[in-house]
Amino acid sequence: MATDSSAIAISGASHEGGRQVQQSTSLDQLLHRGQTHYTAGQFVEAINVWSMAQEHLSQNAFLNRVVVLSNLALAYRQLGNWEKAQTAIDQGFQIISPADSLDSEGLRIYGQLLNTQGSLLFAQGDANNALNTWEQAAQAYTQANYSEGLIKSLINQTQALRSLGFFRDSQNRLRQAQEILAKLDSLPLKSALMRSLGETQRLVGDLDAAQKSLAESLKIAKALPAPGELAITQLSLGNTLQTLAHQHELFVGRTDNSEMQALVDDFYQRAENIYWEISDTAPLSIQIQAQISHLEMAIRHRDWSTARSLKASLLPQLGRLSPGRTKTFIHMRLAQLLLNQCMASCPKDLQHTSQQIYDLLATAQQQAHQLQDPIAESYALGYLGRLYETQKHYSDAIRFTEAALERANHQPTLVYQWEWQLGRIDNQLQRSPESILLHYERAFQHVQEVRKDLRYVGPDVQFYFRDRIEPLYREYIGLLLPKETADIQGDPAQLIRAQTVIDDLRVAELESFLACGLLEPNDNIQRATIQEIANTHKAAIIYPIILPDGPNAERLEVLVQRPTDTSAALERYPSANASISLSPGRQETNEPLTINIEDTLKQFYQAVDSSRASLVVTSTHTQDPEQFQSLATQIYDWLIRPAEQAGWFDDSIDTLIFVLDGAFRRIPMAALYDQETQQFLIEKYAIATTFGNLEIPKAPPEEDFRVLAAGLSYPSVLPSTSVNSNELTENNQPSERPFSSLVYVEQELIAIKEIIKDTDIFLNLEFKKEDFQTQIASSLYNVVHLATHGIFGFTRDETFLLVSADEASVQSDQGVAASIIEPIKVEKIDLNDFDSFLRPRKPTPLELLVLSACQTATGDNREVLGIAGLAIQSGARSTLASLWNIEDASTSLLMEEFYRALLNPDVSKAKALQKAQVSLIQKGRQPNVWAPYILVGDWR
């Protein structure tokens, strides 16, 4: 939501014939009443009062008329009445413009009108025009010397820039706002704006900065006699800490990381302390919102004692709330919490009955109806439909959901939920497939609009995507690929639609990871989709997708697009719907058991990377070769064998492109094993990976390579100022983070220069951020090879590479081991840096980006999105990276073979990587040494 969406106070004077005329006291009271109604969420009452005030204002009181029109637009926007909101804005612009030679007060009000217009545009998904409008507002505020308005307009611009994919520019706007904030003298204003800044930083995903801003706001607020402002800041900081806890908790659930669990506990404890601190002197609505947040946290943390205490004190207070939208949404939020979380996990004495949840929602619906607030009423009716759906009272569920859809005012966030709900209900009632698919298709179309907003919702987008977006995609794909069908291939049109939805899911995942949209190319380069190019380059595309298959069950579907003489053929694997395998030790029973897909993939990952716990892989054998081979064969039989048996992968196919899903992302496909031919998959096919049907340049890759090869071989230490919130000491202070030496890096870079003469090397202290920026931004190089520590984390903030930040002079001495050199200071190059570094060289993208010493932080499948994130932000046609770091001379050998093969113009990048990996296999190296390398993007 845009900042400054609250109504503003009217000026005490108006202009009439060039002089000020005081407004009547009764008029001032009307305007104040309107503000009071607006703040309470009573938007219809606010509109009525402001409309009365508008009638009392003389035609010459143009500044005050503009203020009222701006306020009316905000109120209409809250009700979802875009037409009336825009009409009020248009009337305001008819009254005031820069051509009127406005004084500072006039410029301030003109800026407010522009700010409101920007908010309206942004709420309707027009981020480009919203950005332009907010920039005009900033100019007006600057001319008026009005710092508060300027800060708000800059904060708004950050959200628009983020939604458009300009992350670096977004961060720069935030920094400008911070610099202006630091100079303010008014402590109440500084506290409020610092809180606004922190909330925006939280929304755009910068949780560490959000913590700092909110903590600063809280520090100021504690010294002020304003308990209401203090409580609002406490609530915001507590919710930010809970977001951090939840974010890291998702990670813990996928990796069983005990250190991360301790951090989760710490975040929860700090959030809980803040919730308890919110005093009885705070506004009742803030107290109740804090208690609901605390209750949600207690339920998630299974702290039943605290949950019981909160529930006992919370429920009696609801009736004391003043009528308004805030009260309506508090009722709905509590009902949602009790329905979705407590019903599933709470002890019996904590669970509400369906009647109690119904009462909360019915009260909310009645309040919304009285307030004439169709958006709030749509939510309440839709949630009532959801309640009846869970109770299997489908006729009532349909009635309430259809009523919710009628009141949704075509808002995508609402429409997609209610269409999806109707689709689920129709599916439960076993209605016609056409009816079910129609609802899902409508929901899918509207969710594309919702994603425009999700792109800038930072860490919250992870939860929103996981809980409210991804399940829709998977359910829709499951319906397009029905399990029970006489013809396993099914309807060709539905196969194509399923492929489209899978591709869109992959892109949506990338956007949720990056917390911003994928930039549209702004050059004149002709592009084609991965699918189009694959069909003309002897490449097949494989789509494994894990789908829900009833309660607590899953199934694997695999689609494959293969080239034919005329066009691409899309096939569906006939064996993917069968029971995958009997569980070990259970063959004597008659139960139809299947192996859990996710567990199988996890076991294979652990088998191929037996030393993963230390994050260092050596060339030793895997701990259990038999288990590794069995699992590698199992996954091969899932993904590859059906196509080979069907004759789809004949001699015309030499490259496989994987569009990987979920836990498949962290699996090195090269290590899959064909038991019949006794070959690894990489020995049979070249392999590449892509994340959705993204477009790549039509033109073939360049054949002449100019390489920038840079790296760090010395041990290094990342100073505490660069450490994130998940790297704290026991006292919650950032700790320095050490990194070991990479002893083979120098050898690796020298080998590249011997193969490709046009190579410049920047090693250790020569590899600095500013110098690297200068070099990479030029068009001198079309290949960038980085052999440095790097982490692909589970968020964009945790994804970075290291460069030297040390000014000391360290003499290179090949006779001295790198391990005995004093650690050098390093700093991060993150995704934002890659975006800004490479933007000046557009439209000349990198041909190839190689990250030879990077690794996923812990092997979580979401972290692999970090590789794609770097590829996207760099703009490189192709990116070669490793799933984990290999402390072994094998890396140097593999890179030598890769670049040597790449010099042959008839060898694609994927074939060059295949030759390099096969060369290590032939030398007897184990899979954990050669398998983790993956090629992302253009494989040609």
TrEMBL record:
SMART domains referenced in this protein's UniProt entry, alphabetically: TPR
Protein name from the UniProt record: CHAT domain-containing protein
Transmembrane segments: none
Organism: Leptolyngbya cf. ectocarpi LEGE 11479
Residue ranges of every copy of the CHAT domain listed in the record: 630-938
